[in-house]
From TrEMBL, chains A, B:
GO biological process: methylation; RNA processing
Residue span(s) of domain tRNA/rRNA methyltransferase SpoU type: 96-233
Pfam families the record matches: MRM3-like_sub_bind, SpoU_methylase
PANTHER family, per database record: RRNA METHYLTRANSFERASE 3 (PTHR43191), RRNA METHYLTRANSFERASE 3, MITOCHONDRIAL (PTHR43191:SF2)
Keyword Zinc-finger: no
Annotated source species: Mariniflexile fucanivorans
Protein name (record): TrmH family RNA methyltransferase
Molecular function GO labels: RNA binding; RNA methyltransferase activity
InterPro entries noted in UniProt: Alpha/beta_knot_MTases, MRM3-like_sub_bind, Ribosomal_eL30-like_sf, rRNA_Methyltransferase, SpoU_MeTrfase, tRNA_m1G_MTases_N
Lineage, uppermost ranks: Bacteria, Pseudomonadati, Bacteroidota, Flavobacteriia, Flavobacteriales
Length: 238, 238
């Protein structure tokens, strides 16, 4: 049986402020938890309705009713784990780096982290306005990739000014990406869902690229930031 | 002021059964509604807190409280429209066609419809197990692309057996898509989020392709179906 104060601590971790205060974040689902247990992350507590049969002193068997009380999901899985937020590792300014300028949607960030993992992008740099990568919806969407990508939150304009790699950004009027020469080292900047890349960041971008539209040219909609990232990373790596 | 029966009709359209019974679906958000008003779709009713200044006899000015009652969104926009579900147009079996084998997530289907629109794929063929394209979450995610892609729900195995185009499918063990010769005409089959392409459909696929992984080879996760579709359509079109 969970105490009231335990429940309060866990459910509070939905909020960024409380995650930062306590230094913990929540992971749900047996598959993702098992993947994270094999990573460098440190487990704080594991609440589960069925034992994991692992040597974890901090495993607590709980009832389905208790799991429902602490879960962030409408349909809870059978386990919820609390891990310690790891210390930020410095950004390695080599290879291909993805930078996000105020990406707000947790699902989009989660998908982009998975894409970085898939395409071997080791460093993801986020502006301070980008959604927190330990947000439960982001963690859920990353499916374990979170541990394999080094994520830093920085002053993006200041960071981009310090480095000497070419800086790519997606713009409607950019050069056709299928005809662009893409280097092995560089930074790919992706912008906010509604407003794209901010003026301050745009001023630092050295190479504007675009994904050509093949459909009805009258239509005004752009691609979603996560699908555009998928296509651009594929172009950098192919 | 909306009557109880009006509210019941509108909120009922969240369910596929009632959409099919009444032949209506719901669209929210001024931008998407305006885009759909310019399409071939027929408006049944427009409920809005601010007039659209259009010649629509079926425009009804309502209060914010009433909009909240009928909206499917946690944070309602300023308008909700009901359109008639158009009659299915026959599938044109030429050019590039995308086929979905039991894609269940509304966000994924919405993203794939947008991708078809972007890459000029005019025909999207869905198995009967695929989520309904008039589901409000799908409509929300398509951002107007819904009117520019011809979507049919069919017995997918039977359909694939009748046509003579090459049938491509994404499989982990498939040929590297970056090295494959991709034709201008063909069918690209994408599978279910958890189980991939079903055995019955797999038996009909003539070309298995894969997106190579560049990251840590130990990791087992695959790409999300919508991002994989983005990369594969980009490869077909580039």
């Amino acid at each position: 049986m969970l105490s009231k104060s335990q429940i309060k601590l866990i459910t509070g971790l939905k909020q960024k402020k409380q995650r930062q205060q306590h230094g913990f974040f929540v992971v749900e689902g047996v598959k993702t938890i098992k993947e994270l247990l094999q990573s460098h992350l440190e487990l704080y507590a594991l609440y589960t309705t069925e034992t994991f049969n692992i040597d974890a002193k901090n495993e607590v068997l709980i009832s389905e009713a208790d799991l429902k009380r602490i879960s962030f999901l409408t349909t809870p899985n059978t386990a919820l784990a609390i891990f310690k937020i790891p210390a930020q590792k410095p950004i390695e300014t080599k290879g291909l780096i993805v930078a996000l300028d105020a990406v707000r949607d947790p699902g989009n960030l989660g998908t982009i982290i998975r894409l970085c993992d898939w395409f071997g992008v080791k460093n993801l740099v986020c502006s301070k306005e980008t959604v927190d990568c330990f947000n439960p919806k982001v963690v859920q969407a990353t499916m374990g990739s979170l541990t394999r990508v080094n994520i830093n939150y920085v002053d993006l304009v200041a960071f981009l000014k310090t480095i000497s790699l070419p800086v790519f950004g997606a713009f409607m009027e950019g050069e056709n990406v299928y005809k662009s020469k893409l280097p092995e080292q560089g930074i790919l900047v992706m912008g906010n869902e509604a407003n794209g890349v901010s003026k301050e960041v745009e001023a630092i971008i050295t190479e504007k690229i675009s994904i050509p539209r093949f459909g009805d040219i009258q239509a005004t909609e752009s691609l979603n930031v996560a699908t555009a990232t998928a296509i651009l990373l594929s172009e950098f790596r192919r």
